[in-house]
Design goal:
Blueprint (H helix, E strand, L loop, with lengths): L2 E5 L3 H13 L4 E5 L3 H6 L7 E3 L2 H8 L3 E4 L6 H10 L3 E4 L8 H11 L3 E3 L7 H10 L5 E7 L23 H17 L2 E9 L11 E8 L4 E7 L6 E7 L4 E4 L6 E4 L6 E3 L21 H15 L8 H20 L1
Parallel strand pairs: 1-2, 1-4, 2-3, 4-5, 5-6, 7-10
Antiparallel strand pairs: 7-11, 8-9, 9-10, 11-12, 12-13, 13-14
Helix pairs in contact: 1-8, 4-5, 6-7, 7-9
Length: 331
């Protein structure tokens, strides 16, 4: 894979481009962004060439694969175009399932790989939690939140997709966290929802949710999701007769209780953790897993790897999120 097109040259597109160069310094990376200033600003750094028009970028650059890092609401328009041109496609979270059936059918027709990001499934600390729980019936408490204006400190929250009620901040957190929660705890049987607003943010959706979930194996969980917390937090406590786990959202703060000594023991899952200083206020964001899922994408194309999350999986996850939001509208 020597030529990759990155559609969307914002913070995530820049991250993907930088990691592509890290994976293979010889890789040629082209950026596409409808904003001419953004399409030029990273040339010579993350990107080798850039275009403001997608069709021109595809025609002139002739990439082998594409990465879609635009606003989620635009993905269902961009992905079919890339597939029609015979490109393998890696996409960030979609948040809405518009066009899923058509995209999956088109990928099959063109014999192209359609790969969906779900970064936490590529985290070694999450993989440890999955192995430790291993289908056991447990109780768990989970909180994931951060004050919305701190997400992108370089711009107003009104200027990116979380200001849209269809792709709002809480929905994005659900879309990030639900795939690994469902992978660890299993399918959901029952769910109840509380929600509301605790901030004066200029948004038209709840800024906090409290969920109670019962999974099919009897596991029970409480989940707090919000865009309120002034400290970026991702915190899990899971327990049963056979285990006690505590995780603060980053690989350096994963602990398991030794059942013989009753001591909490730190679990080390990475020798070295790479961080992006642009997200200095959120130590739960590490680069390792973003790189790992890109490597997996190339492995899927080459037939040497299997994706850990698919469009079919995401369709089920988004249906659950839709159910949560539907209950929220009734509160």
């Amino acid at each position: 894979m020597k030529k990759v097109l990155v559609v969307g040259m914002g913070s995530m597109g820049k991250r993907r481009a930088r990691l592509l160069k890290q994976i293979d310094p010889e890789m040629v990376v082209c950026g596409v962004d409808a904003n001419p200033q953004r399409a030029e600003e990273s040339l010579g750094r993350e990107f080798d060439v850039s275009y403001v028009d997608l069709e021109a970028g595809i025609r002139e650059f002739q990439p082998d694969a594409a990465i879609v890092s635009t606003s989620p609401a635009s993905h269902h328009r961009i992905i079919p175009t890339l597939l029609q041109h015979g490109l393998h496609v890696f996409t960030e979270l979609n948040l809405i399932s518009d066009g899923y059936e058509e995209m999956m059918a088109l990928a099959a027709e063109k014999n192209r790989k359609l790969f969906l990001s779900s970064t936490f499934l590529y985290r070694r600390d999450v993989q440890y939690i999955q192995q430790a729980v291993n289908g056991k019936k447990v109780n768990y408490h989970y909180h994931s939140g951060q004050f919305l204006p701190d997400w992108h400190p370089w711009e107003s929250y009104k200027n990116f997709f979380v200001s849209n009620a269809a792709t709002d901040g809480c929905r994005e957190i659900f879309a990030i966290d639900m795939p690994w929660i469902l992978s660890v705890m299993g399918p959901v049987k029952e769910i109840s929802v509380l929600c509301g607003n605790l901030t004066d943010l200029e948004i038209r959706y709840p800024d906090n949710y409290l969920l109670q979930m019962v999974h099919e194996n009897g596991t029970k969980g409480t989940i707090a999701v919000d865009i309120v917390s002034r400290k970026a937090v991702r915190s899990l406590e899971a327990y049963s007769q056979e285990l006690y786990l505590k995780w603060e959202g980053n690989p350096n703060e994963l602990y398991s209780c030794n059942l013989e000594t009753k001591a909490m023991e730190q679990i080390k899952t990475y020798d070295e953790v790479e961080r992006n200083q642009g997200y200095r206020n959120n130590q739960n964001i590490i680069e390792n897993a973003y790189e790992e899922e890109l490597r997996t994408f190339f492995g899927v194309i080459e037939g040497t790897a299997t994706p850990r999350y698919t469009f079919a999986d995401d369709k089920k996850t988004l249906a659950l999120i839709d159910q949560i939001e539907a209950q929220a509208r009734m509160v």
